[in-house]
Amino acid sequence: MRTCTLLPAAGILSLLTASTAAYTTHEEDVRLLHSGRPQVKLWQTIQNHRQQEQELSSTTPEDNLDQKVFNVGKGQPEWQEHGHLHYEPHCFYQPLDHYDPKNNVTFCQRYWVSLRHWNKDQNDSPVYVLDGGETSGANRLPFLDTGILDILTNATGGIGIVLEHRYYGKSLPNVSYPSGEPFTLSTDDLRFLTSEQALMDSARLIQGLDLSHLDKHLDRDSLSNEARPWIWYGGSYAGAMTAFLVKGWGYDNGTMLDQMPPPHPAIVALDPHRLPRRYENVTLGDHSRISINISSAEPPVAPKGLVWGGIASSAVTHAQTSYPEYFQAIQEWAPDECMRTMEDTIETIDQLLELQGGKWRRTVQGWFGLEDLEHVEDFGDVLASVLGGWQGRNWDPKIGSDEFYRFCDVLTSQPSRETLSLGGLQLPLRVGPLKIPVAIYQYAQYVRDMVEESCPLVKDGKPDVEQCFGSFDPEPYKQTGLEQKWRLWLWQVCENWGYFMPAPLEGKRIISKFLDLEFTSKTCRVAFPPGEHFKLPNPGKPDVERVNARGDFAIESSRLAFIDGDSDPWRPATPQSDYALKRKSSLNKPVIMIKDAVHHFDENGLKDPSEEPKRIRKVHQQEVEFVQSWVQEWKQKKQQL
């Protein structure tokens, strides 16, 4: 492998300052990259446009939660503010590769702590960790304030922690290569962004976290899994990771406990106290950062368990390459009139696009303000993008958006044709043998407005739609700088999660048939070419069995809860999928379905719980109830030892 040079503290600061400026907001990242089909080109266009504006004005871009620099080198804390509380990021060093003792590269994994409800009089109060998942951990801080972490710590006198996932936010290696090239998001440098490595990050945190810098009573020994129960929470991908962690490293015959690698030499060199007691007779070699060796005549005995329990919300424990179920779930659960209108509209649009050998394609695209898009697949992709608003809903209007319902209102309204106007275009009643329903023009006006609002580039006096929405130019996908954070989750998708979202092969559709699997997976082939040290074995065909081997729909363990929204477009990939066997809920293995809910609706809360909707108060009360029973069970077992 390429050798790396560790940057000095000043180098770390300069690298982070230069490489990770955020010009898109968290809300835009979620909407464009994580709700429905990822709109990479539009995300890049907005990012680049705002960067250019900032450079011209020489002003600092509007702060995102993850905007500020985490100055590890000088020890100056970055204070994050959300609501009424401030949270300071802390650093837990991890090896870049847990499984290669010769790879000496480490990185700072950020975490944030709330001791607001910690009961100092209880030396065995629980530790709750929220897995940050596929975004900056800074974007999860509200859950320390009013969300699930605040709820559980308040109920049990516990400690709340938000843990940032490797590679996301600022939990990145701070290294450069002998050539002077920095660490990037290239195929080679992304090869350590895997679920396996991230799960080991969590396991090592449990084994080695020391919070004595916050309170002298919270040293490594008093925080150990032998002294306190550790309980995980995650939503979506992080929900699946929570389930995998409890299944693999839990007390219920954890399947991965006997596969724990020895402590990494690079980490022990940084902090010899990170060496677990079970390795106390292990021989340590040279204590330099690079050449330390760990050897032992006999492998140490595996721990009995690391994590006591977990709440897996909207946990996508089932991976699959083609995932048309995302839009089919919307088709089933969204307002009926809207979806039936959408089906008829999409069917007519597809027919128009093929009519007379494609003669009408540019005309139809012109109705939507997209006549300059070169490929029909990109046109269909823009039309499908409006559906991501279904996942963007939340019971708290300050967090969610009702844009999906606004779209449905527009689509199903019935104005007279005389009042319709699309940029002065003449609107036909028929095209050849096809009658054009009014809904197509309603749909077109909505998309026109969306295009004008979202596309910041102008060409010939109108939005440069090819630059904003065209996806067939491979050059933009070759950008690998750390600011290209769209590459992170897409890498995981391309490697072993899948979830490409083509149109279904049969039946009624609410997205164009031109969105086939070849198109929806093509970014994997252009964005991640073979590197010098690693290549995707089969780009566009991820190794989903690596995920499903951990339990798939049937995954279960003691003290592992599954929470889902009934109308979540990701529920078909969870243990509460209609494809899975129905489960019976218990305090030990809770299973909860939230009505009229989508993606991890239980994660956020309000300062005054009485103001939450009844169904949300209920699930929060249920979570408190079963977690309290888990904590009590842990205390009883501890007394028996």
UniProtKB/TrEMBL annotation:
<dbReference type="Pfam" id="PF05577">
    <property type="entry name" value="Peptidase_S28"/>
</dbReference>
<keyword id="KW-0732">Signal</keyword>
<feature type="signal peptide">
    <location>
        <begin position="1"/>
        <end position="21"/>
    </location>
</feature>
<protein>
    <submittedName>
        <fullName>Uncharacterized protein</fullName>
    </submittedName>
</protein>
<dbReference type="GO" id="GO:0070008">
    <property type="term" value="F:serine-type exopeptidase activity"/>
</dbReference>
<keyword id="KW-0645">Protease</keyword>
<comment type="similarity">
    <text>Belongs to the peptidase S28 family.</text>
</comment>
<keyword id="KW-0325">Glycoprotein</keyword>
<dbReference type="InterPro" id="IPR008758">
    <property type="entry name" value="Peptidase_S28"/>
</dbReference>
<keyword id="KW-0378">Hydrolase</keyword>
<dbReference type="InterPro" id="IPR029058">
    <property type="entry name" value="AB_hydrolase_fold"/>
</dbReference>
<dbReference type="GO" id="GO:0006508">
    <property type="term" value="P:proteolysis"/>
</dbReference>
<dbReference type="GO" id="GO:0008239">
    <property type="term" value="F:dipeptidyl-peptidase activity"/>
</dbReference>
